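Record format v2
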Amino acid sequence: MTRIVVDPITRIEGHLRIEIEVANGVVSDAWSSGTMFRGLELILKGRDPRDAWVFAQRACGVCTTVHALASVRSVENALGLRIPRNARLVRNLIAGTQYVQDHVIHFYHLHALDWVDVVSALKADPAATATLAQSISDHPLSSAKYFKGVRDKLSTFVASGQLGPFANGYWGHPGYRLPPEANLLAVAHYLEALEWQRQVIRIHALLGSKNPHPQTYVVGGMALALDPNSTTALNARGLSEIAELIVEAQRFVDEVYIPDVLAVAGFYKDWAGIGKGIGNYMSYGEFPEDDSAQPSGFYLPQGRIMGRNLGKIETVTQDAVAETVAHSYYTYEGGDTTARHPWDGQTKPAYTGPKPPFESLEGYDKYSWLKAPRYQDEPMEVGPLARMLVAYASGHTDVKPAVDRVLGTLGVGPEALFSTLGRIAARAVETQLIVHRLGRWLSDLTDNLDTGDLAIADGTKWDPATWPAEAQGWGFEEAPRGSLGHWIKIKDQAIDNYQLVVPSTWNGSPRDAKGRRGAWEEALIGTPVADPSQPLEILRTVHSFDPCMACAVHVYDPSAGSSVQITVV
Amino acid sequence: MARQDGLYSALLAHGITRRDFLKFSAAMSAALALPASYAPRVAAAVAAAPRIPVIWLEGQDCAGNTEAFLRASHPTVAELVLDTLSVDYHETIMAAAGAQAEAARLGTMKQYPNGYIAVVEGSVPVADGGVYCTIGGKAFSQTVLEVCRGALVTIAVGSCAFDGGLPAAAGGPTGAIGAGHAVPGAKVINLPGCPMNVQNLTATIVHFLTFKAWPATDSMGRPLFAYGQLIHDQCERRAHFERGEYVLAWGDEAARNGWCLYKMGCKGPETYANCPTARFNDGTSWPVKSGHGCVGCTMPNFWDRMSPFYRRLPTVPPFANDVTADQVGLGLVAGVTALTGLHAAGSYVRKRRMDAEARAELAAVSAPIAPPTVSSPTAPDGRAEGRTDQ
């Protein structure tokens, strides 16, 4: 039995340490450890609930905007506010753009280097690369001359001896299976995507002033002024600029991202049998398309799938969410093995791990700054795969044919979705559906503005003097990485308690009180490891979840008592 | 440094024309408040520069500054920046992981002593032996010390690396501090903002390549070219402030007419930054343009000092000018001080005076070669008590 430590796990947001045991060439056990803690909920206590989104948005700068949205939703829920139609559509446009940009960055800049051997691309024949490119897509940048240029650039770069971010990669590892031409194609698109992502995200700047961390949310709606005929508000010109950016985004997704995912996946079909995970999937549902704010009006549906049973969609309610700290660096009064709903959260950080510097967490019962969230006491996987499975099993009119098309192209059945490769495919399918939905939300917005409705915020509860003495609420959002919930308690116009249960806490959780692993711990079991000193396969499965650690680590606010006990062993 | 062919060839290799390059050089000269005649000098300096190694550390961060870096604007400049530098260690983008990642960092430190740029993103937690952030089993506070002490310069990107930022706000339990405080004596340039405007990072590096010296900074280590002026003084809505035309509710007619956001809590009258002129995402927008007030994110301890974010600044005369804008600031500080009990108004008054001094110095920034600057280690709350860069 060999214990392998990978720390830092790179090409993710934040700080993650993975320890695995390998027996007979496959992973036999795994531990996921979040190694950074900030204490956001403690900082939020006592502040103005209208300010919460500004703080909460900083939970993550990669999944920027998602915590802002969950936060304003939680306060609006507590105060009984319903936002105007324009605000709903602007929020959908911002959230949807985030999906598209974030998923594409994930594929090319965070995940691709697990599948693409950059050094091998040097051996590619530009003409053959052009043939390959033209066989899978109509993307115009596909000439032999273009690929020769990319290869020459890469060649100059490597010859410089300064490999920068590509230094010390696992180049030449037997797990890389793409021919040199496919590698060169992917390197070209890695560079194109870098340019593309900063363009498409200008939609956030037009609607929200900047990215990362847009700044136009307010409790009750948006601060953004809309008026097609104004020179100072977001006007017809701004709206048409957004329309153009959406078309550009669609073109890239349709002509570059989707063909690349399918082409790469074709060489790694065995990964449809690796990285299965726990088999429970959850989606809170997202993108409200009517004014009811009910999940029945969401574009992507709410629901759960248990035990990989696509024949049944289970319900989701906020009160079934709870967290345990049996293996996390916190204590609960009344025992670490109990589960607490976020409104009753009561945790104290209590580090009991080894004193740094340390080599291994072996032998330490508690091993992560992440808690272990559970739904009705069950571990869940969240994210694009969970959303697509819930929608697929619901017979969603867009999702079902899109998923079937991908399965057909790859020549695999639905069971292939429960895998490392399935997560990659689901993310791609989702991106394509959302990038095309953006156009509809934009036309809904312009149609509504054309009726003369310029309302963007409900200001009736803006003044805290109008609030009840006590209120509590929750805000759900399906963030790109999965189900996100914020819970708030308000007392005397201030935050009394604030808690976040976020996607990477679901997926990256340590064991719970019953010793059950979290989603990516479980998914690592059975993953082959060819060379323990080059943990390429570990990265493949962990990256398929698109981990985001900064938001995953948080602490409940002790509602009783103001001091925090910190124990250092 | 291994490569001699320089940035200009790298640019050409990326299909950037000489014309694009000169446009970039002109834009950088403008960002740095240099006369247009400096553009050729910027161009020549940047073209001759070999790729400088960079070690980009992330501590208690959200990767927002990394994302800002990826949005580096100006067509083709994203690649320019990536290829001007040799980003040898950056956890969010590097291919290697675990031991191989650590080896890349140690290799650069050994190969280029005092020859690499250390970028620090996120705060440094020092409470309880550094257990609140470990990387490779090692306390982040220790890694920061080792990396920054051997660096040519440390650039602290974002507000968390500046003064501890969000984790250091009231209630934060981890002992979070900024890079300058974590590495006493190191040469630190601070680019606060949540996140920083990446144009200011690019301009800082270009300044070094052009003048072989870092840009002049204020007492808090913030480059004057970017942090020398009040937002209020550059704001496109300033005329409405002067006329007493204010937004009074979100989405009202005044909001659609682009009136002043002061009464909705805008902190522009208190905040030093170039957001109105530099803007974000390829010059597309900035918060006030999009209808929301400034939250003061480039200022020390802004999470406590500038919040509640929707509370209007107290005692503003209806027809203020530059001078009264500063007086407005004093009013705010007194109010917040009473509220939080965290800061002494007196020290803020001193800081105000220094800011005025700093602004005066901005006028002189176009002097041929800015002196090398060394920012002082900041106090725990991010403020330094005197200028050390003269």
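The domain at 231-360 of chain B is CATH 4.10.480.10 (Cytochrome-c3 Hydrogenase; Chain A, domain 2).
Chain B touches chain A through 102 residues (CB under 8 Å).
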